[in-house]
Amino acid sequence: MSRAADRLKAVLNHLDPSLACVRASNTSGQTITHTYQPHNLRYTNDNDLLSLDQRLFYEKNGFVVIKNLVSKEDIDRFRGAFERICRREVSPPGLLVMRDVAIANSEFVPDQKAVTKIQDYQEDPELFRYCTLPEVLQYVECFVGEDIMAMHTMLINKPPDAGKKTSRHPLHQDLHYFPFRPVDKIVCAWTAMERITRQNGCLVVLPGTHTGTLKEHDYPEWEGGVNKMYHGVRDFDPDLPRVHLEMEKGDTVFFHPLLIHGSGMNQTTGFRKAISCHYASAHCFYIDVKDTTQENIEEEVRQIAERKYGMTDAIRFQDTWALRGRLVKGERVSL
Questions:
Q1: CA distances, 4 to each of 10, 15, 57 (Å)
Q2: CATH 2.60.120.620 boundaries in the chain
Q3: Which terminus of the chain, N or C, has fewer Cβ atoms within 10 Å?
Q4: What is the distance between the terminal CA atoms of the chain, rounded to a whole angstrom?
Q5: Would you call 272 helix, strand, or coil by DSSP?
Q6: Directed axis angle between helix 52-61 and helix 3-15, to 10°?
Q7: What is the pLDDT of residues 202-224, one digit of tens each?
Q8: Which residues pair with 65 in a beta bridge?
Q9: How many CB atoms lie within 10 A of CB 107?
Q10: What pTM, to 2 d.p., does this model score?
Q11: What mean pLDDT do residues 92-119 have?
């Protein structure tokens, strides 16, 4: 048996003994044949796009970065659409505009400096085009399958920190916000809209935490305040290794909703922009989060819906997601 086959079998055995199905056949021509069954991997589907190394990396770490996936031309168009929203030239239905607590005095100034994030841009045709880009969806299919829903849309505009460290985003798991399952059929695509470094607040991830469970979240007790809906993990091992994802314009990271991640302060004088979408298999289903760790976010979302749309407490958490979800590929089944 070849050394390469031995090494691959050892790696697969380390991940899961059931994955190790590697054979080497010796012939007179010294040809080595490897038989491998990738369908046994938990977090990705069989596909011809991700390499075996990429699939194994995601299996172990819960994220994978695809370099230069989105074109600079598309990103510039998304930037223009964002600026039109900030200048209040357009007001897409359902859009949620979030502002930094440390620069709240700029709230009514039509300038992007006050805006930290926009969410739910599914009614803005130009921004939502990101969620339908074929180059993005082909990778999403590797994680969630052929029937794909765009469930949660964001454009993050991390401002220069005002001195109170409010530009940080606490470590969290995205699943905390989602009342749908199964967890392994959800993935985030997060694209850098410019060069992103530790200085302007790149993503930081805790590799391997996607294999754990959903933890309790709440607002961290930070001096200087915390931005609205920026919940953080209550209990995790602070000694776990961290990886800072420095990215170039157009690079895209795909990550699992249980992966613990966050971002640091923007210590530059410019803004740090990224665009993202959380996708789910259209075969996912809604769950009742009553008596779970997600009750606090359910109540907060209900209050926001009541203020924004005049809805009563009869609105269910899952209804707020059903209204936002959009089919982007295949057939809408459950969500």
A1: 10, 17, 18
A2: 52-329
A3: N
A4: 48
A5: strand
A6: 30
A7: 999 999 999 999 998 877 765 55
A8: 253
A9: 11
A10: 0.83
A11: 68
Q: Under a CB-based contact definition with an 8 Å cutoff, are residues 321 and 119 in contact?
A: no
Q: Residue 103 belongs to what H/E stretch?
A: none
The 3-state DSSP class for residue 25 equals coil
Please tell me whether residue 128 adopts helix, strand or coil conformation.
helix
Strand 217-218 relative to strand 63-66, pairing = unpaired
Three-state secondary structure call for residue 72: helix
**Residue whose entry in the numeric block shows the structure tokens 């993503």:** 203
Between 328 and 161, the higher pLDDT residue? 328
Which residues, listed in sequence order, are joined to residue 118 by a DSSP beta bridge? 97, 155
The pLDDT-based confidence of 238 (bands split at 50, 70, 90) is: confident
The residue type found at 233 is V
Tens digit of each residue's pLDDT (9 = 90 or more) over 304-320: 777 766 665 567 888 88
Which H or E run includes 135? helix 134-144
Measured at the alpha carbon of residue 246, what is the angle toward residues 241 and 249, in degrees to the nearest 5? 155
Q: Specify the CATH class of 52-329 in words.
A: mainly beta
